[in-house]
Amino acid sequence: MTPNRREIIKGAALTTTGMVLGAMSPLKSQEAAAEKQTKQTSDRPQPSTSRLLAGKVALVTGAARGIGRAIAIDFARNGANVALLDIADPTGGMPISGYRLANESELDEAVAAVRALGVKALKLKVDVRNHDAMKKAAALTVRELGGLDIAVANAGIAIWTTIEGSNEQQWRDTIDVNINGVFNTIQAVIPHMKARNGGRIITLSSIGGRQGVVGNGAYGTTKWAVIGLTKSAAIELGPSNITVNAIAPGPVNTPMYRSQGQLRSGGLKSFEEQDKVVGAMLPIKVKPALDPQDIADTATFLASDHARFISGDVIDVALGYNTIYTA
Ligand SMILES: NC(=O)c1ccc[n+]([C@@H]2O[C@H](COP(=O)([O-])OP(=O)(O)OC[C@H]3O[C@@H](n4cnc5c(N)ncnc54)[C@H](O)[C@@H]3O)[C@@H](O)[C@H]2O)c1
């Protein structure tokens, strides 16, 4: 999925050096100078495409399962040491009907899967809503894994209820995890990234943060807020060489999406019907929902040197659903 930039640039240089140059008119010499410049640019050392994150340290929240787990594993596959953070307790949060939060054995399994790839893994059983605990988790990551270069604020919840039908607690809980949790994560990692003279922060928004959402108003509100937070942090942290970008996924095969709550809010009876109805709205028909790895591909790209000049952006990974946006 990540474009092979080395090949693209190399291809461009080959085309220009393949041109037959005649006698050196002033125009030709300008062209020759431009060609030399192009060659110098294409000769610039490029990051290895096989181990994009070799030697880096990453902290991923909501890493016990779903998208967070896939990102943690893909980072490890690319050579990063990873701290996997999750609440890892279905009773530890607010009651959510329609699915459950991850449990501790899922977090243990994800940690083991990362370790099996030959890198260091750190298990952090922490609630992203807890500001002090997040600061301690970031500090522990630095102590145990030797630094902190990449953070993914992925942990999130969905409480499927309309704005009219929501009670105050459901509204507050959604805001608390999906906005305050992202803020806590970003604030906790900033000093450590500054100490490394740079870093990468990736947040998880949603196609629900790009348009109004029926039957899940609080969730949609928080995913819009994540984009505002991402862009503001990108301005603030740019001078410290820290990039901040959001990924806005479409439907992804995870417990959150394949949940009774999601079915209920869409007036759907089965996951087959979900695939049929949602799949019909997606321009790319290869599959009716993304796999977590599809989001991990983009996260690894954003965390890598390939994306070092991209900041304040929102990348829709949505099987083309984003084509309905006005901009
Ligand atoms: N699945 C989708 O279709 C989809 C689409 C767009 C955006 N997203 C976003 O992607 C992110 C990951 O979603 P997912 O589908 O993998 O969901 P998921 O429910 O499968 O995984 C979320 C993880 O976050 C953890 N978590 C929840 N609250 C926490 C807290 N307070 N502290 C620490 N950990 C906590 C859970 O235990 C779980 O392991 C979320 O932010 C979600 O909103 C998902």
Question: Which features would summarize this protein structure in a list?
Answer:
single chain, 327 residues, alpha/beta, Rossmann fold, seven-stranded parallel β-sheet, 10 helices, 12% strand, disordered N terminus, binds nicotinamide-adenine-dinucleotide
Task: Tell me the number of structural domains.
Answer: 2
Radius of gyration: 22 Å
Q: What's the CATH C level of the largest domain?
A: Alpha Beta
Arrangement of strands in the largest sheet: 3-2-1-4-5-6-7
Describe this structure in words.
With 327 residues, the protein is α/β, with parallel strands linked by helices. The protein has two domains: 5-43; 57-324, 3-Layer(aba) Sandwich (Rossmann fold). The protein has ten helices and seven strands. Helix 1 runs antiparallel to helix 2 (26-43) and helix 3 (66-77) runs parallel beside helix 4. Residues 61-62, 64-68, 86-87, 93, 101-102, 127-129, 154-157, 177, 181, 204, 206, 249, 251-252, 254-257 line the site of nicotinamide-adenine-dinucleotide (NAD).
Task: Give the structure's gist in a few sentences.
The chain has 327 residues and is an alpha/beta fold. The chain has two domains: 5-43; 57-324, Rossmann fold.
How would the blueprint of this fold be written?
Layout: H1 5-17, H2 26-43, E1 57-61, H3 66-77, E2 81-86, H4 104-115, E3 121-125, H5 131-145, E4 150-153, H6 168-195, E5 199-204, H7 217-237, E6 242-249, H8 260-265, H9 271-279, H10 292-303, E7 314-317
The protein binds nicotinamide-adenine-dinucleotide.
The site of nicotinamide-adenine-dinucleotide has 30 residues, from α3 and α6.
